[in-house]
Amino acid sequence: MLESCGFQARIGLRVLEQRSLITFHDYGFGSCLSMHDHIEEMGKNIVRRLHLDEPYKHSRLWIQEEIEDVLDNDLGSEATRCIRLKVTPDIVLEGIGNLKKLKCLFVDHRYEDRNVPVNIDEVSQYFPNSLRYLKWNYYPHWCLPKTFQANNLVELHMCDSRIKQLWIGGKVLTKLKSIILSSSKVTWLKMEDH
C-alpha cells in the first residue's frame, strides 16, 4: 500500500523496525505491522496541528464528528488522502466522491451494524477514482458503483459483504495486487494475467 502511494516502503520500514519504532507479526496469511501508541498519537498530532480548526484541510481524517461534518457540509478538499470512518444511519457518504485525491478509505462497518441503513443507494454512490486501498467489510450493496473506474486500485478488501459481483459488466484492474472477498456473496470472479 505504501509503495502504491509513491513511498520507498521497504527501506523506510526496515529503518523504523531497526529503531524499534514498529514491529511485524506473521499470522500465516501475511504480515501485520504495529507501532507504539505514542508513535501513532504523534503522527495524528502532526496532521491536526497543521490546520487545527479546519479538518477539511487535513490529509487524514479519523475523528468521526469531523468526518461527518466534512461529508455532510460537502467540505471535502484535495488535501484529504485517507479516511477511517464508522457507518452510522446519519452519515452522508456522497461527499466521499468529492475527495478527488483520496487514496485510502477504511469503512468500519461491523457485523452488528450490518442492517443499519446506510444513507446512500447503489445508483448514487461514488468513490473517487484516485482510491488505491478500499476496505469495507459488510459492504451493504450488491456491486460497486459503475462510476468508480478503480484504475488506481491496488487492494480491495470487502469481507462478509453483500457484494455479488464487483461491477455491472467488467473492468480491467491492472494495478490490483490484493483482493479479499471472503464470506461475501460473490459467486465467481474472472482474473486474467496482464
From TrEMBL:
Gene3D superfamilies (alphabetical): Ribonuclease Inhibitor
Domain Disease resistance protein Roq1-like winged-helix: 2-49
InterPro entries in the record: Disease_R_plants (IPR044974), LRR_dom_sf (IPR032675), WHD_ROQ1-like (IPR058192)
Gene Ontology BP terms: defense response
Coiled coil: none
This protein's UniProt keywords: Repeat
Signal peptide, first to last residue: none
Domain of life: Eukaryota
The protein's name: Leucine-rich repeat domain superfamily
Species in which this protein is naturally found: Helianthus annuus (Common sunflower)
